[in-house]
Specification:
With about 180 residues, this protein is an alpha/beta fold. Strands 1, 2, 3, 4, 5, 6 and 7 form a seven-stranded mixed beta sheet that branches. The longest helix has 22 residues. The termini are far apart.
Length: about 180
């Protein structure tokens, strides 16, 4: 990550890898969707589980245009142009690939669940257009909310929530 050899956002970086060989590291349906999304930038995409079992989908569901590598990683070597060479078990090598992490994140939504906020299947908090949850006067923003995990999005959600809090408090105030 520090040396720039690991990519994290295909939405932000997809055009930079246009046409290059890409490896998406992950084993969940979300990782599969990310790999499929990258097919819009290149036709050379491999989903690598690094030896972890597939979760939420089967190998039969992987598109023909997408390769699946399920072997554990033995070693990696940084290459020029923010690329890596990966050596997997069973003698498989993936040379000069752009590597994306699709290992996911764990939203810290325990407090929200404790007070009765509804969570989606990933433990994220669904909100309305004003960042309100299903619990009155409980708002959510950022990575814990369903949607893009991006700083700009989180900042905008925080601003939207602040305005909603202000307006909701004014609406509840006595005249």
């Amino acid at each position: 990550m520090r040396k720039g050899n690991l990519w994290v956002c295909p939405i932000c970086d997809g055009y930079e890898i246009n046409g290059a060989a890409v490896v998406v590291i992950g084993h969940t349906r979300r990782a599969l969707r990310e790999a499929e999304f990258l097919l819009s930038f290149t036709d050379d995409v491999t989903l690598a589980t690094l030896g972890v079992e597939l979760q939420g989908f089967s190998a039969a569901e992987v598109r023909e245009s997408l390769r699946l590598a399920t072997s554990p990683l033995l070693s990696h070597e940084p290459m020029p142009d923010d690329r890596l060479s990966l050596e997997l078990t069973k003698g498989r090598r993936l040379e000069r690939v752009a590597v994306y992490s699709a290992l996911g994140c764990r939203p810290r939504s325990n407090l929200a669940a404790y007070v009765g906020v509804r969570l989606d299947q990933e433990g994220r908090i669904p909100t309305d257009a004003h960042q309100r949850t299903n619990v009155e006067r409980f708002y959510a923003a950022g990575d814990v909310v369903t949607g893009l995990n991006q700083l700009g999005v989180a900042m905008a959600q925080g601003e939207i929530a602040a305005v909603a809090v202000h307006n909701d408090l004014l609406a509840g105030a006595a005249p």
